[in-house]
Amino acid sequence: MRLAFRWAYLAIRRLDLGQRHPTSSVCYSSLALLLTLSLLLTGCVTPKDPGHSSLSPPPLSDPLEPVNRMVFGFNDGLDRFLIRPVAVVYAHIVPSPVRLSVSNFFSNLQLPATIANDVLQGRFTQGRLDFERLVINSTLGIAGLFDVAGAVGRPRHVEDYGQTLARWRLPAGPYLVLPLLGPSNVRDVIALVPTFIYTDPVPYDASDRDLTLGYALRTFNARAELLMTDSILKLQLDPYLFIRESYWQRRLDAIYDDLSPAERWAWGLEPLND
After folding, report:
1. 14-48 residue pLDDT tens
2. Residue 127 class from Cβ within 10 Å (0-12 exposed, 13-18 middle, 19+ buried)?
């Protein structure tokens, strides 16, 4: 395994991954990185075929639960004593329309990554629509502050490298709770590499001060939008299990979002409407 990762490191170096480019992002080196890591872990990875009958939601394993619970406790304490109090003050001071514009702005910055993953997953029609959404909201929407594209039939999609690896049949691996970042799995941790190198929505050429402010604004704005869910979490006998299962359900829903309603119901992704 050590030799394999050494080989991957040398291959990545040859692709000059040390250069950090802005989020123009559908770049060959990002694709090569995903291919390298995928091949190392699976031996043979093939893109998803158009039919969905061969796919099934994999179960989520949690062999590291004792360690994960420790990290969960750390994150919960950080949220309880720092992030949530600041988010409460932020939500009280900043009007809801402004918070919505902040969310729209960061959502617009994430669109290059979504478009890249649309292409990597073979979703070319969705990629075209997301590109049109990026152009419309970046211009008419004033740098993404207003969701003009949504009003003209260009809804928001979110695709990331973890979803792409899942569509390429890379196993999720064990459940992980990451410090500060929260619920994840081994596959999504691998996907963080191209995410942070190429498509992190906070600009690369910003100063340290601006980077800190950008990450803080994104964090507290997102947390403010989740304040209404706190009461639900307080009702749970085991918040760790509740968040783990909710995370995996949401992740499966994002990965297999193009299934038919009957398939989604059969796999437990959503109830079947009468």
Report:
1. 434 334 343 333 343 444 444 444 444 444 344 44
2. buried
